[in-house]
Each structure stands twice: as structure tokens, then as C-alpha cells.
Design a protein that fits this description.
Layout: E1 2-7, H1 14-30, E2 35-37, H2 48-54, H3 61-73, E3 76-78, E4 82-84, E5 93-99, E6 105-110, E7 116-119, E8 122-125, E9 137-140, E10 146-149, H4 158-166, E11 171-176, H5 180-198, E12 201-206, E13 208-212, E14 215-218, E15 222-224, E16 230-233, E17 239-244, H6 247-256
Parallel strand pairs: 1-2, 2-3, 10-11, 11-12
Antiparallel strand pairs: 1-17, 3-5, 4-5, 5-6, 7-8, 9-10, 12-15, 13-14, 15-16
């Protein structure tokens, strides 16, 4: 199964973002990819006011393009994520959409974990404009390979990936706009850890470069196999990367080193309260 991750430099300019996404998605399909992943907020990326101004419903032009492109190219397309506007909701959702080669919307996942943090003195406060989702989503490709959908900051919460693996996910998709410092120091470690822990492939499409003054992403989009080996690694520019996923090798790893099967849920208990210190 050949997959691709598309790395973009999205800004507030929807038309320019769409042109870039369309061109690189077509290039990935021309390279034989049957599954293509776009990065987080590919349709509009910037500060809060940019996200609000660029928000769309799922029947808006961003997902309409994704549906048409997936149908024309005959691919499964995980259209990264967009800032979704839902009728009668004050806040936006950060939503990843899986479109099948039939052009139909097969699944949507609304980001569960809000990026309310401080990174090297810069404050990020997603919950100011966005509402967290409450549901984990696993969705099969046209070839029957189960995808576990996630977005960016989710990668720091291993429990959601374990749950999706138990539900049958064999490939995790991670559209992201990781900051430069966290891309530099944490990105590869986190991606490989989630792959090894859950014996799953990880397809991670990151944004690259400057989206607005003072707002930059670190790139290094990757495709990682269930042994933690990096199969493909993006250079520092807008581009796409491809890799072939060996599903038989994955099945062998899960059979010979059965970490998922050897879990002991009866011995695990969650603390009643966890405090940040």
C-alpha cells in the first residue's frame, strides 16, 4: 500500500493554499499513492482571527475540492484538517476529514486535545477559538485498511492511539502544524514512539515555514513503520513524500512480538485525579 504525506506552507490565502494542495496531491497520486494526507489547517493557517475568517462548514469549498480530487484521482484522501464552522456553535472545530475514492465523506474527526501551552515564551491558546471534540475515529480505506485519525497535539497523548489500535487501526494519520522548537526536539521521537508502542504505521504531514509574522512550523513530515523505522522524511520545503507500507510485515511484527495481545487491562487503573506540577 503506497501512501503519501503532503507538506505545505499555508497562510490566510485560501486560493493559494488550495492551488498548492491540489498540485502536490496530484503529484503524490502520480507517484502511485493510494492514500494521501494533507497537513493541519491546510486551507487557512494563521492567528486566531485568520482561523475565524477562513473557517468553513464541511460542505464548503475546501472539502468540496477534497471530494472532487479524491474521486478524480481514485485515492483515499485525508484532507488534513480545516477550521470547521458548525451552525449555531460559537467556537470552531479543528476537523480532519477522510474522503474515499468514491468522493464520499467517510469519516470526520474533531481534535480532542487543545494546544493551550507556552513554547519558548510564545503563548498558544487554541481553546480561545476552538471547541474540543469528544470522539475517537477509526475509518477504513477503500482497500479495507483501518485508519486512526488524529491531529497534531494529539500525538502527545498515547492513550488515544492505543485505543484506536485496539479498535483495529493499522495506520495512524497525523496532520500537524508543529512549532519549530517542538519539531526540532520532539517530533520524530513522538512519531516513532507511537508507531513502536502500537505496532502501527504513522503517516505525519506537517506544515513548513512562516504562516504569519512570528508563526512558523518545522516541517520534517515523515512516514514511520511499526518497527519505528522512518520510511520517508521530507526536506525543508513544500513537497510530498511517499512510502510503501508492508502490511504483511506489520502482521508478522504483531504476531511475533505481541505487545498488543499481551496487555493486561485488569491490572491498569487510572488515578482519580492528575495534577500538573
Amino acid at each position: 500500500m503506497r501512501v503519501a504525506a503532503v507538506q505545505l506552507t499555508s497562510t490566510a490565502d485560501f486560493d493559494a493554499n488550495l492551488e498548492q494542495a491540489d498540485r502536490l496531491t496530484r503529484a503524490a497520486a502520480a507517484d502511485g499513492a493510494r492514500l494521501v494526507l494533507l497537513p493541519e489547517k491546510w486551507s487557512a493557517l494563521g492567528r486566531g482571527e485568520t482561523l475565524v475568517a477562513g473557517a468553513q462548514p464541511l460542505d464548503g469549498p475546501a472539502i468540496a475540492w477534497a471530494r472532487a480530487a479524491a474521486r478524480e484521482l481514485g485515492i483515499d484522501l485525508v484532507a488534513g484538517s480545516i477550521s470547521e464552522r458548525i451552525a449555531n456553535e460559537e467556537r470552531l472545530r479543528n476537523t480532519s476529514v477522510h474522503v474515499g475514492p468514491d468522493g464520499e465523506l467517510h469519516a470526520s474527526y474533531r481534535k480532542v486535545h487543545m494546544f493551550d501551552v507556552v513554547v519558548e515564551g510564545t503563548i498558544y491558546h487554541e481553546s480561545e477559538h476552538e471547541e474540543a471534540g469528544e470522539e475517537l475515529v477509526v475509518s477504513p480505506t477503500a482497500d479495507g485498511v483501518e485508519l486512526g485519525l488524529s491531529i497534531c497535539y494529539d500525538i502527545r497523548f498515547p492513550e488515544i492511539y492505543r485505543i484506536m489500535a485496539i479498535r483495529g487501526a493499522r495506520v495512524f494519520t497525523l496532520p500537524a502544524a508543529f512549532t519549530v522548537p517542538t519539531t526540532r526536539d520532539h517530533w520524530e521521537v513522538l512519531l516513532r514512539a507511537r508507531a513502536i508502542e502500537d505496532q502501527a504505521f504513522v503517516v505525519a504531514a506537517n506544515q513548513i515555514g512562516e504562516h504569519a509574522p512570528g508563526l512558523r512550523s518545522g516541517g520534517r513530515s515523515m512516514i514511520v513503520d511499526p518497527w519505528g523505522i522512518v520510511l520517508a522524511h521530507a526536506p525543508d520545503r513544500a513537497c510530498h513524500i511517499v512510502a510503501d507500507l508492508d502490511l504483511e510485515a506489520q502482521a508478522r511484527i504483531r504476531r511475533e512480538l505481541p505487545a498488543l495481545a499481551n496487555r493486561r487491562p485488569s491490572a491498569y487503573s487510572w488515578p482519580t485525579e492528575v495534577r500538573a506540577r
